[in-house]
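haha ok so turns out i had the wrong file open the whole time. this is the CORRECT one, sorry everyone. sequence first:
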Amino acid sequence: MSELQPTLTSAQAISSPLVTIGLPTYNRPAGLRKALEWIGKQTYPSLEIIISDNCSTEEEVQKITAEYAAKDNRIKVFRQLENIGLENNFNFVYAQSTAPYFIWMSDDDFFEANYIEECVNFLEKNQDHVLCSGIAKYYSGDQFVFNETMFKTDQESITARVHHYFAHVQKNGNFYGVFRNKMFSNDPIQLHVGCDWSFMARLAVLGKLTYIDTTAYHRSAEGNSQSRKKMVEKFNLTGFKNIFFETYLAYVIAAHIFTDPVINKKVGWIKRKLLAVMVFFQINWKLFFKFIRKLFKSGNK
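then structure:
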């Protein structure tokens, strides 16, 4: 990881924030300003806001982060001297957090004013849950597109939770939920295709995941994981990995669920192997046949 330029902070940060918002950003000044405006509207005031500018080339990004840090002493801003990649930037803001709860926020999204308050209140009352999100709403520009079909992963057994998660996950909107901090010994976001799915599966090993319908997270429908083509391009997949992308994705995700010692302590060796095989076949079946159906439909048009 690159050395950091001097941190832009206000005179003094708050001493004991309850929730850390990790905001990785890169060359999206308009989205960044909107995200920070909505953070400022949160009804839950006990926040630590960590911004990491991933060496943006647009000067407006630095101006915006300096502007908001100057008027909100909860904000800490870091600027990377070189682009460290999307996943490493997500891990960086996570590593700087000090609060017992954490949430990522993308610089082209925003959450409603009561989002953090509602999610934290639920988690405080339900200690067996490790993550709570609101409803994910998707937009193309300013145009509303759809609400994601949310689901609860609150089964009692680890196997049932992992199976249920992969059976229902689509856009993975609950990734941007509030979760209990410092549960992992390694970086939570690993450097592989489908890393957000493997992260959520590791959370499902540690506890229950849920959503509430009293608040919402507003997401851009665009991004690296929006389509098969974009994921293939992002990870420069060629040959077998490109042609049989779904099978490769299933293998990689299954192989990366049990790579953290904290997770492995929860599940015995034999059960880990069986779960990895289950996940491989489950994802492969789900995504490969979804892709075939799309090809069939497009061929009949």
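The two ends are 49 Å apart (CA to CA).
again sry for the mixup
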